[in-house]
Amino acid sequence: MVINYSKWDALELSDDSDIEVHPNVDKKSFIRAKQAQIHQEREQRRHQIKTLKYERIINDGLTERVDRLLTALKSHKDKQAEGSGASDDQLVFQAMMESMMDMKAGKDGGADRPPTPPEGVHEHIKDKPTYPQMMASLVDAVKKDIDEQKSEEPRFDLFIKGLEKEKERIQDLQSQLLAKLAELEKEEKRHITSDDLHEGFNYSNVKKAEEDKKKASAAASSSTGAKKETTVELLNAPKRPDATRSDTGQSSGADADIEEGTVAGATGDNEDDITASPLAQQFAKIKAGDWYACLQFLMQHPEILSEKETDGLLVEAFNSELDGKPKHARQCVHQGLLLQYCRQLGGRQGVELFFKRIQTKDHQAGKMFNDDVDSTYGRIKTRAAEILRERAENPQGEGAGVEQIQLHAVDPNTQINISVPPKEPTATDPEEREAEVQARQIFESFPPGLQRALESGKLDEVNKVLAKMSVDEAEEVVEKLGQGGMLSLEEGVIDATTEEGQRVMNEIEKNRAMPSAKE
Per the database record, which ranges form the Cdc37 N-terminal domain (predicted)? Predict the structure, then answer.
């Protein structure tokens, strides 16, 4: 068999390479120097590969945001054509803010902050720019080019064309990075390195792992014996604690919708319970328009730039409007939206950029922010007025006006009676026996609270349980009660669990009618 030695051609240099060197040069020293050079070039190549991959990720995120900005600009093109009164720069800034707010920020800046670079990549850049800062620089560059052109074409159209050129430039750069990356990866794969070698199945390692496991178990058993602690092992440990109830009677209570013996996790986090933190409430006390104080506060407490704090201030504004404090409500809206805008711009530089632009006279940033504050406060004011009007019309409380399902007889001379299916079927006919079994299964499928209400034989108790259910659930329960034959229009209550109830049930089944109706 012919041995193929071609795979060794990929070796750059080995310690026993048969090479010719100058007689005055030591061969071993020459080989070590050559190896050091090869290792250095290899590390540089790998560093370039990591850098190019990271730059492509950043450019992909920037391209996505440019696309969003172009989409937002084209959506405002109709307003610009209609001459709504807004300047071109104002429409551009508004579209930019809308495109950035679509990218919802998550943890540590989320979508506004590029991913963390790999180790050794871009370490010379201390303050790495965020995506909003990149977009702001790109927009400023496009505006500068438009000002230098001095073209008679509409400024809005020129801005769209300028952004499309920037997008093409980024895509062209991506193509160049991809070609360079493919070249470097091809060169990397062309050579055999120790990183490409991996150890297969090793019996000694497996055996060593087993020995370590045995030693660990032996040490654990010895330590347990040394402690001399007495432990009690339960053969049948309870899987769940018994439910605690405040009412030991047959009242259905609040446990009508839960299974007996289980406790729902009612103490979990409630996302609807949003309140402003003390830090946010302190920020809300800063007078609107005092930009210097707001900026200093945000620089000292950057942790306040979170979505939860914005929502908390808006909830505080809504509650203040309900309490008849419109001035405080508007102040909370102003400060809450200020946090939102600064958070969307991201980072310390983004906050400083926002405050710089909003303090510039006649800048579109200030007008857009104030319009947003007015519209948000207007919605809160309208909704609060509606709630106050509803409370005035329904002063009975929160329960007033809630739709419920209740059982009542249409004829005042009749009464809805409750019949509880027996635990064991008593009928001899196979069909009737099957009907009793199905009725009992329906009864046992009800929550414990509803079962106790039915066993009490009191219609009021059943209605209490139905009142705690939603309309759909209550309708389903009433339908099952009818299917199981547990409701009937007649005087008295039939309890099939007693001898008298069984006698009456047998008479009903025999005559196919209630005892008073057979006449």
Answer: 2-204
CA angle 141, 146, 148 (to 5 degrees): 95
DSSP code of 253?
Answer: G
Q: What is the SS3 string spanning 195-223?
A: HHCCCCCCHHHHHHHHHHHHHHHHHHHHH
Q: Which of 89, 75, 101 is nearest to 139 (CA)?
A: 89
CA angle 489, 494, 498 (to 5 degrees): 175
- Whole-prediction pTM: 0.41
Task: Kindly tell me if the per-residue pLDDT of 54 is higher than 50.
Answer: yes
Q: Which of 340, 345, 350 is nearest to 304 (CA)?
A: 340
Span 173-191, pLDDT tens digits = 999 999 999 999 888 888 7
**Is residue 173 within 8 Å of residue 52, measured between CB atoms?**
no
CATH class of the structural domain 278-393: mainly alpha
Residue pair 360/367 in contact by the 8 Å Cβ criterion: no
Pick the closest to residue 344 from 96, 54, 89 (CA basis).
Answer: 96
**DSSP three-state, residue 263:** coil
Higher pLDDT, 398 or 506: 506
Distance, CA of 455 to CA of 461 (rounded, Å): 10
Give CA 316 to chain center in angstroms: 23
All residues at 6 or more sequence positions from 199 whose CB lies less than 8 Å from its CB, including other chains: none
Alpha carbon 179 to its chain centroid, in Å, reads: 38
What is the spatial distance between Cα 376 and Cα 332, in angstroms, rounded to a whole number? 11
Beta carbons within 8 Å of 174's beta carbon, 6+ residues apart: 56, 59, 60, 63
pLDDT band at 72 (very low <50, low <70, confident <90, very high): confident
432 in Cβ contact with 509 (< 8 Å) = yes
Over range 23-47, report the average pLDDT.
86
Residues forming beta bridges with residue 416, ordered by sequence position: 489
Any alpha helices (H) in 323-429, and if so which ranges? Answer: 326-345, 347-358, 364-393
Token pair 């730039």 is found at 305
Q: Looking at residue 392, what DSSP letter applies? A: H
Contact 487, 407 (CB under 8 A): yes
